[in-house]
Every structure is written in structure tokens, then in C-alpha cells.
Amino acid sequence: MPRNLNAERDNPCLKEQELSFKCLNKNNFDRDKCEVYFANYNNCKEFWNKVRADRRGKGIAPYLPPLEERDAIKAEYLKAKPSQS
Question: Which residues cross the membrane (predicted)?
């Protein structure tokens, strides 16, 4: 459990961040062995930053959606995302 009780609410990429740290610890801080985790974390941050900007632009507050809405927002994005062939 994170030390900051609001960490999950404030950081939608907390799980990806923790997995990156865990990988680094497991691999003696060899960043090359954790590139997949870093890419996943960066993709997560990029996605939620776009969500924040979109909500801010539409005047929706809070800019970062509450925990209970995040799964639905991700599912909606994945449904609308064009497949890469």
C-alpha cells in the first residue's frame, strides 16, 4: 500500500510507476532491462495528460477523473482508437 493515501487518486499511473521501480530494484538499476516498463509508464502518463487537457478544454472538473470513472474512460478510448495494421 502506498505511503500517501491519495497517491492512487492523484497519480493514475501509480501501478505503472511502481512496476518500473520494482523492475529497477530487481535488476540492480540496469535501466536497459526495464525499458518496457518505462515505455508503458510513459504511455500511461501521455494518455492521462491528454485526458486532463481535454477535460480542461471542455470545462470539466476535476481535470483528472475520479478513480471510479477511469476504467470506463480507458475502455472508451480503446474502443474508439483506430487499430494499427
Answer: none
pTM for the predicted model, two decimal places: 0.84
Q: 3-state class of 11 per DSSP?
A: coil
State the Cα–Cα distance between residues 43 and 24, nearest whole angstrom: 18
- Cα–Cα distance between 2 and 44 in angstroms, integer? 19
Chain centroid, CA 55 distance in Å: 16
List average pLDDT for each run of 10 residues in the chain, which is 85 residues long: 77 96 98 98 97 96 94 90 64
In order of 34, 49, 58, 75, 82, the CA distances from 79 in angstroms are 29, 19, 21, 6, 8
